[in-house]
Amino acid sequence: MSNALPDQAARKTALEVSESFIVQAPAGSGKTELLSLRYLKLLSISRQPEEVLAITFTRKAASEMRDRIIRVLNWCQDCMDGNSAPVDEIQRLRLDIGSAVLAADSKHGWRLLESPGRFRVQTIDSFCFYLAKQLPILSQVGGNPNVTEHIELCFREAISATLGNLNSDTRLADDIATVLGHLDNDVAAIETQLITLLKQRDQWSNYIFALTNAAQPTERYLQSSLEELVAETLLATIALLKEDEAELVELYNFAASNLDKEGQLPLGEFIPLNTLPAANSESLPQWLFLISFLLSKLDPDNRAKGNWLKRAVAKNGFPPANQPDKEYGALCKQLKSRRDELVNKYLPDSELLEALCYVRLLPGPELDRQQWYFLTALCHVLHALNAELLLAFSRFRLVDYTQTGAAASLALGSSEEPTDLALALDNVINHILVDEFQDTSQLQLELLRKLTAGWEPDDGRSLFLVGDAMQSCYGFRNANVGIYLSVKERGIGELSLTPLALSSNFRSQEPVVSWVNDVFSGAFPRHPNISRGAVPYSPAQVIHPKSDGTGVRVKLLHHESDQRQAANLAEAQVVAEQASALQQQFPNDSIAILVRTRPQLQAIVPALRERKLQWRASDIDRLAALPVIEDLLSLVRVVINPGDQLGWLSLLRAPWCGLSSGDLLALAADKTSASIWQAVQHFRGNSQLSQHAREMLDAFRTVMMFTMASRGKRSLRQHIEASWGLLRGINCCRSELELESVARFLNLLDEQEIAGGLSNFFDFQDMVYSSFVPSTDAQESLSGLHLLTMHKSKGLEYDHVLLPSLSRPPRHDDKTLLVWHQRLNTAQESHLFMAGVTETGSEESSLYQLIRYEHKHKQLLESTRLLYIAVTRAKKSATLFANVVRDEDGGLKEPDSGTLLKRIWPQLEGHESVTVSALEDVDAVSKTDVSGISDDIQPTLITRFNQAIEFEPWEQRALEFPAKIEETAASESRSGAQESLQPALKNAASISSTAEENYQQSELPSILGTLVHRVLETYVSAPDRALFLRDLRSLEPHWRLAIRHLDLQHEAEEKAIAFIHASVRRTLETPSLAWIFDDQYLDSECELELSRLQSGQLRNFIIDRTFIDQNDVRWVIDYKTSTPSAGQTIDSFVAEQRENYRSQLDSYRSLFSYMESRPIRTGLLLTAIPALVEMEF
Known about the structure:
Blueprint: H1 8-14, E1 21-24, H2 31-44, E2 52-56, H3 59-80, H4 89-108, E3 120-123, H5 124-134, E4 146-147, H6 152-163, H7 171-182, H8 187-199, H9 201-213, H10 218-241, H11 245-262, H12 284-292, H13 326-346, H14 350-361, H15 369-396, E5 398-399, H16 401-412, H17 420-428, E6 431-434, H18 442-451, E7 462-467, H19 481-490, E8 498-501, E9 504-509, H20 510-523, E10 541-544, E11 551-559, H21 564-585, E12 591-595, H22 604-610, E13 616-617, H23 627-640, H24 645-653, H25 661-668, H26 676-681, H27 691-709, H28 716-726, H29 736-752, E14 753-754, E15 757-758, H30 761-770, H31 777-781, E16 785-789, H32 790-793, E17 798-803, E18 818-824, E19 830-836, H33 846-871, E20 874-885, H34 900-908, E21 914-918, H35 953-960, H36 968-971, H37 982-989, H38 993-1020, H39 1025-1030, H40 1036-1043, H41 1050-1068, E22 1082-1094, E23 1097-1108, E24 1114-1120, H42 1130-1155, E25 1160-1166, E26 1171-1174
Helix pairs in contact: 2-3, 2-4, 3-4, 5-16, 6-8, 6-15, 7-15, 9-15, 10-14, 16-18, 20-34, 21-22, 23-24, 27-28, 28-29, 35-37, 38-41
C-alpha cells in the first residue's frame, strides 16, 4: 500500500495559509491535527501571536487544541536540542512548521512557551463575552455580568413585566389581550410557552424586530413569503412530472368530467386543462385533485404521509368498464389501465412521492384571518418581551450565552457602520480558524461575517472553517447545518471559500468503515437541501486495514406487542452481558455504552451492577437523586423558613438525627408547641419520644439553635456549610462522588444567593433537580467502561461501542406558541415562515402543520446523523441493539418513524450483520427493580449514620457563642466539602470579644479595598461620569451587604461606608488622575486576568488597570486603599508603600515584558493621598 494518503493533496492545500478554505472533515479524519498545524503555520508568518484566532465550540476542544500546540512546540524544541527526532512524514511536517514558529518566537521575543495565554484559542462563548465587555453600554450587557444557563428568574421577571402592561392604555395592551384570549386566558400555560420561546430567541428575535419595525405589515410579508413557497414547490413538482404532462392532463380531464357529471367534483367548477395546473396558490385545488387519483387517501393525523394509490375507483373519477355505453366503458377501462401503468412507473420514485405529499401540506391562498391577527399581536408582544428581558439581565447582572452572542454582534456594529472595536480588531486579527463549523448558529455566522467584513483574496488575511456536516446534531441548541451548506456554496459576505474534503479514517478498522459506508450511504439523503439541512453522505477510506475486532453487528430482539417492558429488561441484560464479555476478552480496551437519552440507562445500570462492573459517567445521574443532597435541601428549607413543617420532618429523618415515624408523629402532635421547631427545642418535656430520639435530639437541637441564632451573620452558603459540618454531614457521604456533589450543591447555592437568602426556594430546588452529579478525579482515572449520551460522545473514540434502545421513540414534541421555519428560496434569499398555535379547542392551521412537518423532517435527518456519530466512535467494534414487534404473520414490524432504528431499517433488510432472536430465547431477564430510580441512589437509612452527634469540648464552647463564630468557620471547608470544619470551629471557640473586634478590623480593610476597586473599574466604562458620581450613593446597599457578615456596630458601619465614598471621590475628582480612567486608550483593561508558567507552575495575576498610551507605553497600575498611620508623613507613607509592593509591581512588569517589546511603566494609585506613585526598578 502506498504511504500517500488518499486525501493527501487536500491536506497539503489546507496548509496554504494565504487562502481561505472550508474543509469537510468526517469522523476520524484527523481534523484537530490539521487545525493545529495550520494554526502553527499562521503563527510563523505573523508579527504577533494575537493575529491568529482559533474558535472552538467547547472548553474541552479549546483545551485539547491548545495542549496539542504546546506539545508540538515542546517536541520541536527537543528535536532542535538533539533529544528527539521525527520518524515519519507527519512528524517531519510538524518539525518544519514548529521550528518556524520557534524561530519567529525567538526573533520577536514572544516567549510563547512561558506565556501560553498568548495562544488565542477560545470557545465561541468566551470570545463573544470578551467582545461584549469591551463596549458594555452599546452591547447592552452592562458592567460585568455573570454568564449562566440558569436564567429562568430573568425570563419570569421579563414575562411578568411585559404582561403587566395589560391594563395600560397602549397598543401593546391590546396585543397582550389578543394573545391571552387566543389561549383561553391560561396565564400559567402562556408563561411556560414564552419561556420556551425565550430560550430560542436567537432564531426569531431578528425577524420579529424587522417585522414590527417594517413599513410592510407583518401579514403582507408572511403572505408573500408563503405564496413564493407555494410557487417554487409547484414549479419543482412540475419539473418532476413534465415528462408525463400530456398523459396526466388527459387523466385529470377524464376523472374531473366524470365526477362533475355525478356532482361529486371537489372543485368549484370543471375547467379542462391543457397543461399541468399553474404554479400558484389559486391552482392548489386542481393540484390536490390531480394528486387524489395518484396517492392513497390523506391521513388527517399525518398529512405528510402517503403511498401510491394502487387501484383507482369511481370515487377517484375512474368508473368501472361495465357501462351501458360500450364505447364509454372501453374508454374507462383504457384510461384506468393507463393510470395504473403510470403509478407502477412511479413506484420506485421516492423523491416524487415526497414531493406530492408535500404539495398536500401547502396552505391555501386564504388563511384564517384570526390566525394573522393573532400572529401580528404575538410579534408585538415578543418584541416588547425581548426589551424587558434586557432590563431583567441588567437588574440581576446575569446573561446567558445567547445574549453574549447578540451582545458581541452589537459591539461590532454593522458592516456599513463598524464600531471602533470592530476597526481595532480588523487591525489585530488577520487569521481566523473555526472548528466544528457544522454546528454554527445564525448569530455566530453574523459574528464571523462582521469580523471578516472587507477581507479580500490575497490581502494577507484568511478564514479557515472545519467541520463535518454529517455530524451536525445540535439542532436543539439552535445549530443549523444549512449554514454550513450555504457557506460552502456561497462563502461568507464577499469572502469566497475554497471547499476541500478529507476522506481518510485514522480511527476505525476496515470492517467498521466498510459497514458504515455500506449502510449510511443509503440512509443519508441523495441531494443537499440548505433549508432542510439535508446532507449527502461522503464515504470514508480505510487507513488501518488490520482488524482484531468484529466490525459492526446488529442484534434484534422480537416480541409480542404487549411484551415491550419485558423486552426492554431483556435487552438491558444482553447489553450488560456483552459489556462483561468484552471486558474479559479485551481487558485493556475502552468500551462505551451510548444512549440517545439518559432514561434509556435506567434498566442498564442495575444490570451492569449485577455483574459487578464499574463504569464512569458524566451528566447521567441527577444531583438531587443523591440522599445527601436531599438532606442539604431540607437544611436550606428550614434555615430560610423555620416554619416549614415538611422541611423539619425531612431534616429530622435525615441520618444525623434519624427519627422513626413514631417519633416524628410525637413531635408533630405536641400541642404545647406552635411548630415542629418549637417541639424540638422543648423535646425533653415530650413523654411520647423514644429513648433513641432523646439521645439524637440532644445534640441536634444544640446545632440547630446555633444555626438559627447565626442566621444573617454570614453568607447563606457559609452558613449552610458550617451547619452541615456540625451535623456531621460528611459522615453521610459514602464516596468521593458524593463529596464532590456536596461541593457542587454549595456552589449552586452561592450563585443563587440574594442578600443572605434565596429569592425563591422552589426555583433553587428546580435548579438542583436539573443539575448533574459531577465527574470526580477518581472516575476520570478509571479505564474501561463508559456510560454517556450520543451527543456527549461527539469528538471521542472507544475500542468498542454498544448502542442500546434504538427502537425507543423520542419524547413527543409539545405544541409551541409559535413555530417558524427559515427557508432559502431558489435565489438563495432567506425567508421566514411563522405560524401561531390555534385557539384552544381548534384544529391546527394548515400553515402550522406545514412548519411542524418541516421541523420533524429536519429532526429525522438529524437523527440519522446522530446514529452515524454514535457508530463512528468505534475503533474495533460496534453493536446495535433494538426490540422489534412481531406482526401477525410472524415477521418484523417496521419501527416507529422517530426511532433511530427506522433511519437505517431499509438498509438492514437482509444485511449479513443482522441477527434476530426471540424474547423467549433470552433467559437473562433480571429481577432488578427498575422503577426509574438510579441504582446509585439509596434511601436515607439510619444505617448510614447511626450514632448521636458528639462534640469536642472546644466545639461545645463555640456552639454556646454563635455570634463569635467567624466567617473562617465556613471558609476553612469551602475549598472542598470533604474538609473538616474542626480547625475553624476550634479557632472560633477561643475568640473573645476583643479578638472578634480585632478580626473585624483586619478583614474590613480588605473588603473596603475590594469595593473601592469595583467602583473604579465601573467608572472607567461609565457613559456619563458626572451622573455616575452623583448617583454614587445608590451603591450603598451593595456595600452594606458586603460587610454585613462582620456584624459591625452602627457607628463602625457608617465609618466604613464613608471611607468608600471618600476614597472614590478623592481619587476621581483629582484632575491630575483623570487620564488614568480614560477608556479610549489602546488595549484599555480593568481587572485583567493573566496567567504565566513559572518554574513549571501556572500562576494567575489580576491587573487593576492597564493600557497603552499615545506614546506607545504600556502602563500597569495597581490600586491601593491603604492609609497613613497616625503621625506618619506623606513622604514616609509613599516610601513604605513603594517598598511593600515593589515585588508585586516587578512581577507585573516582568509578565508584560514577556508578551510585548514596548516600554512598560508601573505605578501605585494611592487613594488616600490621592496620587499616582510611579515605581522605579
